[in-house]
Amino acid sequence: MIGESAVVVPTNWKSNIDQVVAGYETEPAEGLVHGFQKDSIQNSWGARINKKGNGWGTRFQLIENEKGVFLCVEDWGTTGMTGPNIPMDEINNMSGDLDSEYRLARFSAMNYSGGNEGAGLFGRGKLLYSAASNDYNFIFETLTKKEGYRANYKMLEGNSLKVANIAYENEVARQYIKDNTELTPINKVGSRIIILNPRVEIVNAIKNGYFLNYIEETWWRIILKYHVTICVEYNGEVKTAKVPSVYNDAIEEKNGWKAWKRNAYTLPAYHSVKKIELFVSEEEINEELCGVAFYRRDMKIGEIPLDIPAKIKNKYFGFIEVDNNWEAELALNEDLEHYGVKNKNKRCFQKLKFEVNNEHKIFMEDLGLIKKKTSEDQRLRQELTEISQGLDTFFNTINVESIGSRGQKKEKIEVSWAGIDFPNSNRDRLLTGDKIRNIKFKIKNNTGSTKKIEYKLSVTCKNQEVKNIATSIKEIQGSSEENFGPFELIIDSPLVRYEKNIIALEVSIAGKTIIKQIPFYYDTTPVSEPRHNFLLKNTSMKFPREESKRVNTNESLTEIKYTIENNTAEKAFIAFHLSTHNVAQSNELIESIILKKDIVLNPYDKMEIDCPDIMFHQDVYESKIDQGKIEIRARISAAQDFLDYEMAEELSKGSKISVFFNQDPNGSGSTFSDFRTFTEESGKKSDLNNVDGNWVFDLYVKHPAYERIVDDEEHRKEYLAEEMLKQMVRAHIEEGNYSILSINGSQNEQIFEELSPAELMEKIYFTIDYLQYKRLKS
């Protein structure tokens, strides 16, 4: 069946390692540095000889010598890497799994876990040793009672991960370590991983103490229970991990700590809880120590979502431990990086969450932070408030701008055209032999780190690619912008004649694709279709208060920026207007902030406008309004006749931005300022109404669908969340925030205001479904 000339399919190991790193850099994981200590200790703890860790320890040691910089991860009180020294080519030809005792073979090969003895499950943690090196290289040595001393390496050469076919043994192995590192080989049973040229973020974390803090936060349970040794050594100084002092105080209930503990009970027809312990302090504690976590095999995995009163949000922590059978179910639902669960709706996690939530509520009642009994109306209002806050938080996490936004958040990666020259400034009908010249675009990286992007510039027709103009992969430094082009396109085969063709730019980064398009017609009459020729968007606005849209007399809005895009094939002459309006007085003009008439934009170009601060002068504003809602409005118009536009004709307007003058906004930072219930049967499940400039959510409690589930807490809350999310989408559309209809991973230039009713309805339905999907998956 398999021919003699068959070979193993090449693997791009560099890409594999980078993908693992990306997983650790994505929430709920806490970054490469945190993941490195977590997985390193987990690997060692899983190989301990004694169940309670007697005589076990791990040391992280940063060493600099003539051979280079090394980060050593050494353990003792473990078995070492046991098992025969099997050649790699033999392992490749094996079928089935490796014996759990073949630790050397498991570690030398890839995609084998540590034998399911520790918290590791998937064998991915070993790739972190490669990822911890700037060059993807590390050496490892091990000493076992039976097999003796052995050493090997894993080093990246091109995209291939190289390892000696057979591990070096005894004196040959020791000499290999000395020759390559000038380090003294280990002389007690255990293992040592030697990272060559470690990454700067790990080195810095060791030097500044964050690395030790991460260890203490992750592994304090085994430090407390088994008195194990985990230390970090640098420059001759050894620091040993301890239980965080605030945790010690909490457990002993001293220095103002209060505790709630429940131990050793079994759920009917299910598994057992070993411990639930909850603690609250009089003083705030470090953010990374807050929250109630669940553990598996003594390793912190993730947090349990709780409704924690704001009064104690930064003073509260706790944990739950469950029996081995429960842990086994949780393990099957755990994410690859060991920081959370794949499916929060699985029974093993739902029961975990229920038990913690139940004890948490009792504790909160005992502390007097929540009332033991509330009326049905109070309960419903509380649920609506909590669900609304949760949805606002969810919208924020997926980068949906808030209602009445202070300005859109900058995209991490911005893509825009930077110019294009059509023959005779005409893109409507091009003929064979015509040339489109100077096709240019720019990509801006607004993050602080280098990002790898892949772009493709092509021509498509009827959603099929017909010509590739350019494809490349590029690394863009943080906080920088790269320009690409010029490219040119000759109108000829294989472009599709007598059809609309599209110049398509696709930029991909971390699974997200940004799409930009420029249509043209090849030897055919253009079909009349809506065009969004100009875009105006607020990109920055700083309020006097971080978490409020209140502005007082003589205070200012600062750092105001808008971007303007010209999506036509001709140079545009634009005037930019910015003004403030009194909402309560039919949007009466209060002040014209800026009128800029000299903006010139080249075809398919983009410009950012820096605006003056808006100062709410007493003599200007208090003569029109004592207090209330003010709208900031921006628009662009034609500064002179061009294309089909006459001078002063409106080209586009940005979303209105609301501020609250001399008063606190109701429900500041929230979509809804209030909630109302109605008993009449209107046929509606819910509704959205604007009351005094604020959005109010209305619930019709006599709708049969609500009455059917009102007594089931889980289904009731889900019903309310679905209705509220639907009305939140409606509120965005009412305010002209059509960007919410582009939250499915791609950005494009389609103008939603110009869609047909059926097309717009389809977009809205899809957006609601997609948001529900993302919410349930999150």
From TrEMBL:
Domain of life: Bacteria
Biological source species: Neobacillus bataviensis LMG 21833
Name of the protein in its database record: Uncharacterized protein
